[in-house]
Design brief:
single chain; mainly beta; Porin; 5% helix
Length: 314
């Protein structure tokens, strides 16, 4: 999947990857990279969340191997500074029967006021079990795992694990007599939780995935913005969609929501966006998609998003 996305970001969530505005102003534009390195010690810079998980599938054959490339460009205006970053993530999925296993490794280039850093962000691996429940219904259960690997020195990756188990359902409505179009509705819900790699005293933990990570609430201002993929250490997430397929084309309207479960002091708990997409099948297992969404709540983590996707399989 080639996913080219451009949006401007104005975050007000300070639970992860916080960038202290006062420190940035003190450092000046020429020293912004040093501020990023010093203050983004728990950066969240991966394609994590339900938007990266496989969608509940409808009827039809599934490719054995699906190769993908997801790229998005992001522009922002935060704390008086303007910049952008580009994330490119090769992605590969293998489908065997009802089980799918896949991974993607993001590479991020951050340009903050002319100061440029680049490196790998946290990779994610995913596993899913999906099946048809009846003629009209299909369901899935899955797990996404964000790994503590990447360029932590330049603030492009965090040292945390993050797990996101999810479930999804899809209903395909029976077409009207003589109709060549098909309506469907789908939904996904999950809860993401950050896990720490070491015990609280700094010693290596015998069970590194068994203890929830310490939240980033202590020691920073919740009103400070973040640059890359802001999210809390624990969130409930949901995605709902309604789509219409006719011939090779599919139109879909969707909504995305993230609800902060860590009790943020600024009171901003729910972030929701709504959008639409159009997908055109080029050849078997290959399609082109355009997608856009905007925030619909006062609390927001980005202003707008526009994407272009190309996916293929064999």
């Amino acid at each position: 999947m080639l996913n080219l996305t451009f949006f401007s970001m104005r975050g007000n969530d300070g639970t992860r990857s916080a960038l202290n505005a006062g420190a940035i102003r003190a450092a000046g534009r020429g020293g912004v990279v040093a501020a990023v390195v010093a203050l983004l010690s728990t950066s969240a810079a991966a394609f994590c969340g339900l938007q990266s998980c496989p969608r509940p599938a409808g009827p039809g054959e599934v490719p054995v191997v699906e190769a993908a490339l997801r790229t998005r460009g992001v522009s922002y205006d935060l704390a008086g500074y303007q910049g952008s970053y580009l994330v490119t993530a090769p992605r590969l999925f293998v489908n065997r029967g009802r089980v799918s296993v896949g991974a993607e490794v993001p590479f991020t280039r951050l340009d903050n006021g002319g100061a440029v850093v680049a490196g790998f962000s946290n990779p994610v691996v995913m596993a899913r079990y999906a099946r048809r429940l009846s003629y009209a219904w299909s369901g899935e259960v899955g797990l996404q795992w964000e790994l503590p690997v990447g360029n932590r020195k330049d603030g492009l990756a965090g040292d945390h694990h993050m797990l996101l188990p999810w479930v999804g359902l899809r209903h395909d409505f029976a077409p009207a007599p003589g109709s060549v179009s098909l309506w469907y509705a789908s939904g996904m819900v999950g809860v993401s939780t950050a896990l720490e790699k070491a015990a609280a005293d700094g010693a290596a933990s015998g069970l590194p995935l068994a203890k929830p990570a310490r939240t980033a609430h202590a020691g920073h201002d919740h009103a400070t913005p973040v640059f890359v993929n802001p999210h809390a250490d624990r969130e409930a997430q949901a995605r709902v969609a309604v789509g219409w397929t006719r011939g090779r084309g599919t139109v879909e309207g969707f909504g995305l929501a993230q609800h902060d479960l860590t009790g943020p002091e600024d009171g901003a708990r729910t972030y929701a966006r709504a959008g639409a997409s159009y997908e055109w099948t080029l050849v078997r297992f290959t399609s082109l998609q355009v997608i856009a969404d905007v925030p619909v709540t006062a609390a927001r983590r980005n202003e707008r998003e526009i994407g272009l996707s190309l996916k293929t399989g064999f």
